C-alpha cells in the first residue's frame, strides 16, 4: 500500500501506467475535419505549420490557454491550445508541442483539425475560420474502459445515481470557471470525473456542451467502467481510478451527509440522503472488489514504468542526496575513457583554444565522435556549482544548440563532453574568401532561421530563460548539413521565470555585437541577444565582419541603414549569394536585421516575432529607427579569462564551454 500511494502521488507516472493498464477504444487521436483542403507548400500550409510550431511556447507561459491567428484573407489560420487544468508549465509545453506536430504530420492538407487525445491531456485545434468563443458540438468522439460496471458493483441503480449526481456537479463547477480556466474535477468514492472547456466559451455554452457529452456517454457507453467523450469545445472523462491531480477545489460527494448539512442543502445532498437510506447498497466488500484489482494492476505496471524510466529520470532531475552525484551518474565519463578517446589530449586532436580552455576531438570506443572541453584549473567554480551547471546545460535540448553529452570531474580535471560538430564555426566559412562561396543564399537563410529558433528556445521555450551575451559568428557551429548550433555559453546568465533584465559592473563580450545599453550601463536582457542577432544577420547577408567592414567610411550598420532607406538593400548582399535565391527574402532579412539593432531596446522585436517574420512574408513589419552605431569592434575578454591574452578571433573551432550561470 505504501508503494501504491507513492505511485499515485506521481502525476505523470500514473498517467503512463493507466494508459498501459486500460485499453481505450479511440475513434481518432487526431480528427482531420472535412471542411476543405490546401495544397502542399501553399501559403495556408506554411501559415498552419508556423502557428502550430509557435503555439506550444505561448500556451505554456499564458496559464495553459492561448488563441492566435496568422495570415490574411483565405490564407489566414486560427489556432487554439488548451492544457488540462492540473498541468504545470513544462508539461503543458511538452504535451502541446507533441500534439501540434502530430496534427501537422497526420492532417497533411486539411484546413481544419483538432485533437483531444485520451492519453494526451491537452487540446490543439486549428481552422481556416474563426472559432474563438464559439460552441461546437460536432464531431463527437468517445472512448471507453472496456471492463463492465457489473463486474465492480452489484447495485447498479445506486451506482448510476451517484454517477449522475457527480457528473452534474462537476459540469456545473467547470462552467463557472474564470476567463482563464474552466476546469473541474470530482470524486464520489471510487468514481473520478474531470471536465473542461476552453475558457473563452461562455458559462452557458460550456454547461450545454458538457451536459451534451454526459448524455452522449450515457447513450453510447453506459455499462462500462470509464471512458471519455469530447468535441472541439469541451471534454469529459471519468473512471474508477485517479487519473488527475486532486486539489482543494475537487468536488466531493459523500455516501452520507455531513453533520453540517442543513435543510437548505437538501437538493444538493439528494444523493447523500438516498444512499443513507440504502447503506447496504455499496458495501465495503464491493468497494474492495472494485479497488483492489485496480490497485494491483496499477502497482504492477508502475513497477515496470519505474524500471523503464529510471535512466531518463536520472538525466532530468537533481537528486537531493548529500553529494548529488546519483542524478549525474548517467552523464559522468571516466577520465581514462576520455584520455583514450583524445589520445591523451594530443595536440594533433586539438580543435581550438579560448579563454576557458582547449577543445579536443575524440572518438569513443563505440565509434561516436565527441568534442572535449578541458577547462583551465583557475575557473573559480566549486565542485557542486560545476555539477549544477552541468545539469542545467544537459537539460537544454534543441537542434540549434550544441548538445552537452556529459562531464568528467576527476582528480583536478574538469572536462565537458559535447557532440562533435564537423564543419567548425560560421566565421570560418563566412569570412574566408574561398569557403564563403559555398554559402549560397538558401544556406545563409537556413542558418539565420536556425539561429533565431535556437535563441527563441533559450529565451522562451526551455525551462530556463538564458541570456547568451556573446552571440557572434565564431560561436555558431555548423553540422554536416550546414545547420547552425549555438555554442559557447561561457558568459551566459540564467534568469528567473519572471525576470526580464539585469545589470553588471563587469561588461564582457565583443564590441560591435554588444547592445548599447550593455556597453554604456552594463544593463542586459533578452533584447541584448536580439541586438547581437541583428548584427549577425547583417554579417551573414553581407559576408563581411562588423569589425572590418568599411564602405565610403560607413560601418556595416550605417551602410545597411542607408541602403534600406534608399530602397537598395540588395547592395548589402554578398556577391556569391545575390543571384542564388529570393530577392524578397534578402530584402526582408535586411529589414529584420535593422529592427533588431535599434538603439532603444524596447523597439527591438522579440525572438518569437523574429521567427514569425522570417517564416511568414504576410506578417507586417514596423519601420526601423536609426541603428545604434558602435565603435569599431575590438574584443573584450570573457569574464572567466580577463587575464588571458587570447582574443575573440581565436575563439573559433568547436568553441564550447560550460555556462557561468547566475540564478536570480
TrEMBL record:
InterPro entries: GNK2 (IPR002902), GNK2_sf (IPR038408), Kinase-like_dom_sf (IPR011009), Prot_kinase_dom (IPR000719), Protein_kinase_ATP_BS (IPR017441), Ser-Thr/Tyr_kinase_cat_dom (IPR001245), Ser/Thr_kinase_AS (IPR008271). It holds the Pfam family PK_Tyr_Ser-Thr. GO terms for biological process: response to abscisic acid. Residues 345-619 form the Protein kinase domain. PROSITE patterns: GNK2, PROTEIN_KINASE_ATP, PROTEIN_KINASE_DOM, PROTEIN_KINASE_ST. Residues 254-277, 639-664 are annotated as: Disordered. Its main location: membrane. Residues 1-29 form the signal peptide. ATP binds at residue 373. Residues 26-131, 141-243 form the Gnk2-homologous domain. It comes from the Eukaryota. The chain crosses the membrane at residues 287-308. GO terms for molecular function: ATP binding; protein serine/threonine kinase activity. It is a single-pass membrane protein. GO terms for cellular component: plasma membrane. PANTHER family: CYSTEINE-RICH RECEPTOR-LIKE PROTEIN KINASE 27-RELATED (PTHR27002:SF1104), RECEPTOR-LIKE SERINE/THREONINE-PROTEIN KINASE SD1-8 (PTHR27002). This is Pyruvate decarboxylase 1-like. The lineage of its organism: Eukaryota, Viridiplantae, Streptophyta, Embryophyta, Tracheophyta.
